[in-house]
Design a protein that fits this description.
The protein is α/β, with parallel strands linked by helices. It contains eleven helices and eight strands.
Length: about 300
């Protein structure tokens, strides 16, 4: 069965469109978002508001999978996503599912494939996290340089999660992570498996959408963080490393002002959107929908176009 993928940068309207398409087709959504998996983290991850009914998370009448099921102290990776996504599609092989989200690696891994790599080791990951916290990200990157100079040249020290994963793979595999790559990472999207729809907003408009959304979410996100900490969850738990939450924590501790926090989150979100655009631009066969004005985002007209392309 050929599926749908609704992709694009953060704040581009993926969830809204996916829900409208799911209602039109009377089907279900699989979230491809690495942060919406966490319970208790809803505002900052832009998780669709829903509730659990009969074992499924539902946003009104639509089943929305792979959100709101993981404790913030736990980890979730691309391998976990692929296993769960495949299991979901296997339950209804004749149903077209809608994959919606901006975690490009998840989408790529499921539809294109990635090199088989050793799964994350919690003990080793905890050791590397402690090392990075004590010695700093530059020291962790220097360790990667010793283990895998090729990967070290490709991954900047500031991208600590990728650096840590490359170190972890090198240690677990007993050889450089770069030596395990086969080239699937750069494969094109298989149009026979799914129609990939990319939501492309004019840059200034997307920046405005990011700014407006961040302004609305700042206070609720701070309360959400307070509520989570009140349950005894540590500040350095995996969930609170999600974009925006470290900045909220600085504000709550009095290290930054509200204005500084707002501006920092907006800047980081714009930078994240840029990385997402770069990622999805690799797929030349995507149905690219360009928006140069707010009124261009007409969900019913967009769905008509998507279905026409899907059925052609």
């Amino acid at each position: 069965m050929k599926h749908f993928v609704i992709a694009g940068p953060t704040a581009s309207g993926k969830t809204e469109l996916a829900l409208a398409l799911a209602r039109r087709l009377q089907t279900e959504i699989i979230s491809a978002d690495s942060r919406q998996v966490f319970r208790a983290l809803t505002i900052g991850t832009a998780k669709p508001q829903g509730k659990w009914q009969n074992g499924k998370y539902r946003v009104e009448d639509v089943a929305y999978h792979l959100v709101d099921f993981l404790d913030p102290t736990e980890t979730f990776d691309v391998s976990s996503f692929c296993t769960r996504a495949q299991a979901l599609t296997n339950t209804a092989p004749d149903k077209p599912f809608i994959f919606a989200g901006g975690t490009g690696m998840y989408i790529h891994a499921h539809f294109v494939g990635l090199d088989p790599l050793p799964p994350s080791d919690p003990a080793l990951r905890a050791e590397l996290t402690a090392f990075a916290q004590e010695k700093g990200k530059e020291a962790l990157h220097a360790r990667l340089t010793q283990l895998d100079p090729v990967s070290a040249k490709q991954i900047p020290p500031g991208n600590i999660q990728r650096v840590m994963r490359a170190v972890e793979i090198s240690l677990l595999a007993g050889q450089p992570a770069s030596a395990l790559k086969s080239g699937q990472f750069f494969g094109q999207f298989p149009s026979e498996k799914a129609l990939l729809v990319y939501l492309n907003w004019e840059k200034d408009l997307l920046h405005k959408r990011i700014e407006e959304r961040t302004q609305k979410m700042l206070e609720p996100m701070a309360q959400e963080t307070k509520d989570l900490l009140a349950t005894g969850v540590a500040e350095n738990c995996n969930g609170l490393k999600s974009l925006g939450y470290p900045q909220i924590l600085e504000w709550l501790k009095g290290e930054k002002t509200k204005e500084e926090t707002l501006e920092k989150i907006i800047t980081l979100t714009r930078q994240y959107a840029k990385r997402q655009r770069t990622w999805f631009n690799r797929y030349k066969n995507a149905l690219r929908l360009d928006f140069s004005a707010p009124q261009d985002f007409d969900t019913e007209k967009i769905i008509d176009r998507i279905l026409k392309e899907y059925n052609s």
